Amino acid sequence: MDLINRSQPNSVALETTLLVHGVPTEAAQPLNDELAQIVTDQGSHPTLIGLVNGKPTVGMTDSELASMLNSDSVLKANTANLGVAMYQQVHAATTVSTTMELASAAGVRVFATGGIGGVHRGYGEHLDISSDLTAFTRFPVAVVTSGVKSILDVESTREALETLGVLVVGYQTDSFPAFYLRESDAQVDVRIDDAQELAELVSSELERTGRGIVVANPIPSEHELDQSDWNAWLSDAQQHAEKVGALGRDATPTILARLHQVSEGATLRANLELVKSNATVAGKLAAHMSSIHT
Ligand code: PSU
Ligand code: MN
Fold first, then answer.
1. Most buried pick, 51, 53, 264, 276, via CB within 10 A?
2. What is the pLDDT at residue 136?
3. What are residue 233's DSSP bridge partners?
4. Contact 181 CB / ligand 1 (< 6 Å)
5. pTM exceeds cut of 0.90
6. Which ligand has the minimum distance to the alpha carbon of residue 126?
7. CB of 117 closer than 6 A to ligand 1?
8. What is the whole-number distance in angstroms between the Cα of residue 9 and the centre of ligand 1?
9. Is ligand 1 within 6 A of the CB of residue 249?
10. What are phi and psi of 121, to 5 degrees?
11. Distance of CA 227 to CAs 176, 206, 254, 255, Å?
């Protein structure tokens, strides 16, 4: 793929959809700055990925991000419509699936996000399953994530990963985390507590399989939401999404924005904290991996 590659051996990929469609506009630039600092503090190199005027860019500059954040409407690109944005030469934010695609094309092996997409609740009716899941079968990138957003069907998403044969490693956890909550009823394939050990397993599995790996890192306990608050906010947000008819690519951003609103910012604060925690773990992982010679 024709891309601008500003990555380094210790790069940590960061995605633009989280910044552009996942948090309020005014939170995006500060979040990006914080994530970059966190990754740097761990001895790794922050590498923001997106499409700048249609050009796949691995390592966006601050001015490229500013130009994206100042645009009226920025496409949300998954593996289906990535090529459309390239053809139309427009800015596009990459989701987990396309951030993995561009990262792997550039040789970047570690990526920090908030939560990967997955199987939506009520999928039996409208089959909304994120293209993030199949991306793991195609692109050899380790994605550090707080599990899947609890707006999804968490247990079905875990089953889908199993069906696709994707390794799910729990970093200091036995339970598959549910984004705002540290635990779900589902389990990980293996628990690893030490970053160096994690780096060894991840390096050899990426190399051996040529496929992606889920590295599940639960939200720090002090930022976990209260289960009953969460249930109330979620049912409001789901009803809202149904009322405004948000489907397909719009479903996730609509539900997240409504949650941030009805929780008076509590879900947003939790979201920001878990992404920062994931950037810390990814920064450590990339630093350890870059010192392993395979
Ligand atoms: N994690 C967050 N906020 C987000 C997302 C993840 O904390 O906004 C984004 C990611 O880019 C993920 C996308 O790939 O949501 C999933 O969207 P969909 O369900 O349409 O595949
Ligand atoms: Mn979807």
1. 51
2. 98
3. none
4. no
5. yes
6. 2
7. yes
8. 26
9. yes
10. -60, 140
11. 16, 35, 21, 17
* Pairing status of strand 55-58 against strand 110-112: unpaired
Residues 6+ apart with CB under 8 A from 247: 126, 128
Which is nearest to 249 in space by CA: 98, 136, 86, 25?
98
φ, ψ for residue 206, nearest 5 deg: -60, -45
Domains of the chain: 4-225+263-292 (3.40.1790.10)
d(CA 49, CA 144): 15
The C-alpha angle 162, 197, 174, rounded to 5 degrees, equals 45
149 is catalytic: yes
Measured in Å, residue 100 CA sits from the centre of ligand 1 at 13
- CA–CA gap between residue 214 and residue 74 (Å, rounded): 27
Strands 92-94 and 110-112: unpaired
**Tens digit of each residue's pLDDT (9 = 90 or more) over 221-272:** 999 999 999 999 999 999 999 899 888 888 889 999 999 999 999 999 999 9
Q: Are 170 and 216 in contact (CB under 8 A)?
A: yes
Q: Which residues of the chain have pLDDT under 70?
A: 293-294
- The residue annotated as part of the active site, out of 64, 101, 149, 273, is 149
Instruction: Enter the tokens of residue 231.
Output: 């249930």
| C-alpha of residue 238 to centroid of ligand 2, in Å | 14
